[in-house]
Fold each of these.
Amino acid sequence: MRLQEYQGKELFRRVGIPVVEGKVALTPAEAEEIARELGGSVVIKAQVLVGGRGKAGGIKLAQTPQQARTHAETILAMTIKGERVRKVLVTKAVEIEREFYLSVTVDRAAKKPIMIFSPEGGIDIEELAKTFPEKIIKFHVDPLIGLQAYQVRTALYQAQIEPTLIRPMSEIFFKLYQAFVQYRAQLVEINPLALADGKLIAIDSKFIIDDDDVPTELAGWEEEELAGSAEERAAKQAGLQYVKLDGTIGIIGNGAGLVMATLDVVALKGGRPANFLDIGGGANAEMMKKALEIVLADPNVHGLFINIFGGITRCDEVARGLVAAQRELGIRVPMVVRLTGTNEFEGRQILEAHGITPVTDMEEGAAEIVRQVITNKNTV
Ligand code: GDP
Ligand code: MN
C-alpha cells in the first residue's frame, strides 16, 4: 500500500525526521482556516498517490488565506492522472536553499536494502539517473547488522557535502533507515530533502508498505483513503454502504449482492454506474431519502435506478422515502424504480399517486434508465 504525502510525513515525524508544519483540508474553507493558523504564505498540495503533482498543477503557492482558499478550490476539483483529488495538504511555505534526494528501497537482485542519495534532489530520480548518473550515490545495507556510520560518512564525502551538514544529514540517513525497517516499507523516499534556513527538512514523502506485512500501527490507513470523499463519509455516518464510481447512472438497492448485480445489468445494457449504494436490509423511509441525497450530490449523475427487492425491507417504506425525497430534494434527473416483494402493492400505490410508475423486472428497469439517460444526453 502506498501512503499519501501527509501520512508519510506523520511517520517521518514519529521517527524524528523534521517535516514542514501543515495540516490536511477537505474543503476550501478548511484550507483557508489552516492557512490563517499557520500564518504567512503557504503551499497547497494535492494528496494523490500518483507522481508529478507539481507539473499537473496540483501544487500551488498562496500568499494569503483567501488565496489558499481559491487554490484549494481549484486543486480539490482536479483529477490528476485519473485520481480524483479529495484532500489537500496545507503547509508553511519554506525558502529552499538546496534540494537533496534520499531513499531506501529493496534491491531484489542483491536481496538487500539499498540506500540512494543525491545532492541534486527535487527532480524525478529516474530523470536524474539519465541526466546525471554520477550524481547518484548508492550502497547496500546488510539487513542483519543495519546501517553503519562509515557507510553514511563515505556517501556524504563522495557527494562532497559540506562539513557542517554531515552530522544532521547522517541523522536523517539513520532515521529514514529506521522508518524503512519499522514500517516494513518496500520504499521510503524524501524528495526533496531541503536545506531551508540552515536546517534539513522533508518537503515531500513517499512510502510503499508491504501489503502482506502492514504494521498494526498502520491498520486502516488505506481504508481512510478509500473512504475519503465527502459522499462516502456522509454515507458511512448514515449507515449506508456507498462506493463512488465514474459513470452517470446513480444506483440504489438493498443488499450488496443485488446492488452488484444491478451494476452489472446496467453495464450490460450500455450504461455506466455512478456508484454502488446498498441501503441494507430493513431500510426505512429516512434511509431511502438519505441515500438519494448522497447519490444526487454527485454532479455526474444523469439518471437514477432504484432496485428494491422487498424482504425485511418493506416496499411501502421505500416508496414513502422516495416520495419525501422527491418533494424535498426536487429530483431533476430521470428515475426508474423497480419494486418487488414485501408490501409491493402498497408501495406501488404510493408511487403511482405521485406520478412514478415502478417496473417489476430488473433487466427491463436497467434498459429503461439507460435509454432515458442516453436520450436525454442526445437532446442536450
Ligand atoms: P511532487 O511534485 O509530487 O514530487 O511534490 P513535492 O512536494 O516534491 O514538490 C515539488 C516541488 O515543489 C519541490 O521539489 C519544491 O521545489 C517545490 N516546493 C514544494 N513545497 C515548497 C515550499 O514550501 N517552498 C518552495 N520554495 N518550494 C516548494
Ligand atoms: Mn516530490
Amino acid sequence: MYTYIVRGGNKLNGSVRLKAAKNSVLALIAASILTEDDVILKNCPDLTDIANKLKIVNSIGAKALCGGDDIFINARNARNTGMSAELARTLRSSFVLLGPILSRFKEAKIYLPGGCRIGQRPVDIHLDALEKLNVKITNHETYLLCDAREMRGSGVTFKFPSVGATQNVMMAAVLAHGTTTIQNAAKEPEVVDLQNFLNAMGASVAGAGTGTIEINGVEKLHGAVYTPISDRIVAGTLVLAAAACGGDLTINNACPHHLNALFEILKDNYCEIEYSGDTIRVRSDGRLNALGEIASEPYPFFPTDLQPQLTALAAVCLGNTGITEKIFENRFGHIAELKKMGAKIYVDERARTALVQGVDALYGAEVSACDLRCGASLVIAAMRAKGISVIHGVEYIDRGYENFEMMLRGLGADIVRVQECKRKPLQKIFDK
Ligand code: EPZ
C-alpha cells in the first residue's frame, strides 16, 4: 500500500508529454484477440488497469507482453476457456472482452462485472444489443453463457450512449454476417480510436463520433501496429492542477479538441489556455473566479472523469460553483475528503449536485482516495493547500496515472510516494 505525502504551495512549471489513453488502450487490447496476427500498440503507459487487462488476455491463451512503451499481443493460441471470476473482478473493463470473444469463438462464459464505488455499473445496454444481434444469453446469477453461433448484423438503438456497450457491439459485429447499425452510440474519442484501429486491421466501420455507427461484417482481420490517441483525462487533470496551483505548464502530444468542454468552462477566467497542433499551454496565477454551473454529460460535453478534479479547483475559486454529476450515481466520494482540507461543499446526493463555496485556502490533512479520479482530485487539492497532506490509496491513482508523483515533481510539486508501514503511524509527520 502506498501513500503520497504532499507539501502544498508550489506552482507547476515546465512541460510533460502524454502517453496513450488508458480507456482507449483497454478497448484495443480487447480488439487484438479478433485476429491471429501480431498486434503492437505503441506509446502505452505503465498502469495497473492495463497490466490487469493483459493478464486477462494471457489467461485465455493469448500472448501479451509489454516492452517499454509498446504492448505486443498475439492471440493465435487464444482459447475460449472463459476468464476467471477473480481476474474479471479486478477490472470492470474485462466485460468489453465479450464482443471480441463472441466474434472469435462464437460462444462465451463471462462473469458480470458488478458495481463499484461510483455506481451499480449495469450491463443491460450491452446485453440488449447483443440479443438484437441474435446472441442467445442465459443468466446464471454471477455469470452469463452466450451463444453467438447464429449472430448476425442488425440495427440497435441505445437508451443511453454507453461507451463500453458501443465498443462491445462494434467488436461483436465486426466479423458477423451482415451490417450492424448502432443508433445513439457513444461519441467519445476512445470509440473513434477503436473504429480506426479495427479499420487498420481490415474491418469496415464508419460513423464513430457521430452517434450513428455502421459496421459491415468482414471475413477476417489482420494484425496492425497502432498508436492510440493520447489521454485526454490525464491532460485535463494537469490543466486543472495548473489552474488551481498556478504556474506555466505545457502539455505535448495532446489532442486539444478533445478538451473543448473543459476549455469552455475555464475561458475568460484568470487562467490563460492556448493550444495549437498537439500542444496545450496553461498559465494561471492560481486564483480563478467561480466556474458557474457545470454538469458532467456524455462526450462532447464535460466528462465525468474530470468532475472530481474540477471540484478541487472550484474549492479555491472566488465565489460559488454548482456541479451536477449526470453519468454515475455515486461519484462524490472525493467531497468528504476535500472537506477535511477545509473545502466548503454542500451535496444533495439525491439530485447528484454539489454547491462549492470557494475558500481562500485549503489546509493539509490526512485523506484517502476511493477511486482513481478521486485520488487525482485530492492530489490537486493537496498541491494547492497550505501545509502537508497525506493521501492514502495511491494504488487507485496508479490505475490511471503513470508515475503521477514523478510527473508532478518534474513540474515543481513537493510530493513523495512512501510505502505505508504499520509500525510508524503517519501522524508523526504532522507532529513536526
Ligand atoms: C467508460 O466506462 C470509462 N471506462 C469510464 O472511465 C468513464 O467514466 C465512462 O466510460 C463514461 O465516460 C473505460 O473506458 C474503461 P458507460 P463505461 O457504459 O463504459 C450506465 C475512468 O475513470 N450504463 O458509458 O463502463 C452506467 O451505469 C473510468 O477512467 C447502463 O445503465 O461507462 C453509467 O451510469 C471510470 N447500462 C453510464 O451508463 C449499461 O449497460 C455510463 O456508463 C452500461 C452503462
Amino acid sequence: MINMSAQYRQTYEALAKQIPFEPEICVVLGSGLGDFAEKVETIKSIPTSSLPNYPVSTVQGHQGFLHFANYANKKLLIIQGRIHLYEGYRISQCMVPVFIASKLNCKKILLTNAAGGVNHHFKPGDLMLNTSFNGINIKKELADLIGVTLLEKKNAFIDFPSGSFNNVIKKAALEEKISLKEGVYWYNKGPAYETPAEIQMTKKFGGDAVGMSTVHEAVYASYLGMEVSAISCITNMAAGLSSQKLYHTEVMETAELVKKDFERLVKKIIELS
Ligand code: HPA
C-alpha cells in the first residue's frame, strides 16, 4: 500500500470521481510525442489543471491531459503532462503522474522521452530502448523522497528496465520492422543543455543518450511495483557532436519526423502487452 501524502490523496480523490475505467497500461509521452494520444480511441480526457495539486506543465509540447483510451482491447492511461525538476518543482510534485498511474492500478508503465544522442552510431530520428539509466545527478532528490522507505524495504533494488516488458518492446520493433537502438539514458537536470565537455564525460562513462526526465519516474514506478520500460527518441546529437546549435524547436521538429514510427511501435507494444 502506498503511503499517500495529503496532497497526493487530494489529487487522486478528485481524479477517481471522473475516471471511466481502471487502466492497465500507462504511457507517459515525452517532448514532441504528445500526438500519440490522438491515434487511439479516447474515452475521456481530463485536463490536469482540473486536479488539485497537479503541477502545471510549463514546457512546450507537454499539454497537461490525462487521456483514458482504448487500443487493441487494452485500457490505457496516456499522460500528456510530464513534470520536470527543471521547471522548479519539488521531486514529490514530479512524481504525481506516476503516483496516479500506480494508484489507478496500472501494471505497466512505458516512459518515453526526447533525448540527445551521445553514441556516435546514433542519428537524429533514431529510437532507443533504454537498457539502463544513469541517475547520479538526481540521487539526492530521490533519496530525499523515497530513500528512507527504500531502506525499510527488504529489497531496495531498482528493477529498471523490466526484462519482460523490454522483450515485448523488442518483439514489437521487429514485427513493425523498426530499427530500435539500445542504450543507457543519462539524466541531466537541465534546463540548460549540456556542454560539449559534459557530453565527453558522459560518453566516457557509458552514456548513450542524455535527457532531463524519465529517471525519477522509473525509480518511483519500480518502487511502486510497476513493470517499467523506457524509449528515447533521439531528437538531436548532444552538445559538441554536431555543428548545429541546440534548440528546443529542433527537438520538436525531429520528434515530428519520427512520430509515425513511434506511433506504430507504441501501438504494437500495446497489442503485444
Ligand atoms: N540534452 C538533454 N536533453 C535533451 C536533449 C539533449 O541534447 N535533446 C532532447 N532532450
